[in-house]
Design brief:
With about 475 residues, the chain is an alpha+beta fold. The protein has eleven helices and 24 strands. The protein has a nine-stranded mixed beta sheet. Strands 6, 8, 11, 12, 13 and 23 form a six-stranded antiparallel beta sheet that branches.
Length: about 475
């Protein structure tokens, strides 16, 4: 064959190969989610924060669906793990993975693998193969979680671009992420499950990307980076934007946008400072809409599509935009996410990951509430049983599932328990930490009366992270 023909064939082959690669690379995958931690005034992460979750539909799979709690008020399990597990210092909340096929592309097959360094991946949909320490046939031993623990999920034989509908549900936290123009994905199980996205949650025992400490004398929050496992001491990585937010019990909302910071692998360096408190005039109408707008713009700049950013923020409506508290939001650098949450696919794809960090801070109001509770007369728990006969079954179920926004139960709530509810999200972790550090008879009696003790970790008599 003439050399010229050989060259032409080679050229055509190269073009075809390039076309195949471009077709495969046309798959675009977007992921969003959040990492949440609770830190005290010294920046110390508190354990036992897998409480007060937004409930998921019954069809969502758990690492161990047979874990049952004895707690009166906090339901069965939180994040698929026994509630108040003392090693849980970080929550991986609601990551969803969207698949965007090229126009007119046929459905395609792929596998997806995600791991969590320093924790367990505990809830997921559609069904996936699970790997975690202590997982055995039909059971899970929920022992200690360490920074060396690795949990993993693998979805094998997924089909992207199916016509199958997702399961029926009216739960807002599940339905909101569906409002995205993305391809439906179906797993390869005999009883196939489909959804607009892959969903998973997890819990961990490793440091959040930022460590916050409050300098009360100077009314300042000091920020330090926790990137020692990701960066060298001389490397720099930008973090931001950052938002400090406070929501009052009456719904008033204040926030300020902080300047982006630069972190290194040196965890001792203070990399940013901000005023810790807000003036009464800072709680202005329209603040929530303004913050949502800033967050949405930042997420789109980070690579999400507009409808994906809107879906993420819609899932925050109750838990973080309206729940009282003082908290810090920030965009997590992709390099940190890829280190602690490696994600891979069996086919070439363009991947965009946008994660938000949320640090819950202990506000002066919460400290005052803990002091108040520690000095109160403690009630008996008999009133709890009246809730089961409540005329409003829906409100009763919300209360028994650990939610503060349960409405009228038709049952009088004792003053001490109301003071406990007023502590807001992560109140259980707050009260257990207060009792460990500054024990009082009242707090000890309250914890015992309402069965709020930490989960007892098998093989760990000290029961400490």
């Amino acid at each position: 064959m003439p050399a010229r023909c050989m060259s032409l064939i080679a050229l055509v082959g190269s073009i075809l190969a390039a076309g195949i690669a471009l077709g495969a690379d046309g798959l675009t995958i977007h992921e969003w989610g959040t990492f949440t931690a609770l830190q005290d005034e010294q920046g110390r992460a508190l354990g036992g924060i897998n409480v007060d979750d937004e409930p998921l539909p019954d069809f969502v799979h758990d690492l161990n669906p047979f874990v049952v709690s004895h707690s009166y008020s906090l339901g069965i399990q939180m994040k698929g793990v026994p509630e108040r597990h003392p090693y849980v210092t970080l929550r991986l909340e609601t990551p969803v993975i969207y698949f965007h096929l090229p126009p007119r592309a046929a459905p395609m097959k792929l596998d997806v693998d995600v791991a969590l360094r320093g924790g367990w991946l505990t809830q997921f949909y559609p069904n996936a193969d699970v790997d975690a320490p202590g997982v055995k046939a039909g059971r899970v031993d929920f022992g200690p979680i360490t920074p060396r623990t690795i949990g993993r999920l693998t979805w094998k034989g997924l089909t992207v671009g199916t016509d199958a509908p997702g399961p029926v549900t009216d739960q807002h936290v599940w339905a909101a992420p569906r409002n995205v123009q993305a391809a439906t994905v179906t797993n390869g199980d005999k009883q196939a499950e489909s959804e607009k996205y892959l969903f998973y949650r997890g819990v961990g025992n490793f440091a959040a990307p930022l460590e916050t400490a409050t300098n009360a004398a100077h009314d300042q929050i000091e920020l330090r980076g926790r990137f020692e496992d990701v960066l060298g001491r001389s490397e720099h990585l930008p973090v931001g934007p950052i938002w400090l937010v406070q929501v009052q019990a009456d719904g008033r909302f204040a926030y300020r946008t902080l300047a982006p910071i630069s972190v290194t692998g040196d965890r001792s360096a203070i990399v940013g400072r901000a005023r810790a408190s807000f003036d009464p005039s800072d709680f202005a109408s329209g603040n929530l809409d303004s913050l949502r707008h800033e967050l949405r713009q930042a997420l789109v700049r980070d690579g999400l599509f507009a409808d994906e950013a809107a879906a993420l923020l819609e899932t925050w409506n109750q838990a973080y935009f309206r729940a009282p508290g003082l908290r810090l939001f920030f965009l997590v650098p992709r390099r940190w996410t890829d280190h602690y949450l490696p994600l891979s696919f069996s086919v070439p794809a363009i991947l965009q990951r946008s994660m938000i960090g949320r640090i819950e801070l202990i506000s002066p109001q919460q400290r005052a509430g803990l002091k108040k509770l520690s000095e109160m007369e403690i009630s008996g728990s008999g009133w709890i049983y009246q809730i089961y006969q409540s005329k409003n079954a829906q409100n009763a179920q919300k209360f028994l599932s650990g939610h503060s926004d349960f409405g009228d139960l038709g049952v009088a709530i004792p003053a001490d328990y109301q003071a406990y509810l007023d502590l807001g999200r992560f109140r259980n972790a707050l009260i257990l930490d207060a009792q460990r550090r500054h024990p009082t008879r009242a707090l000890g009696l309250f914890i015992a009366t309402y069965e709020l003790e930490s989960f007892s970790v098998p093989g760990d008599a000290a029961n400490k992270p």
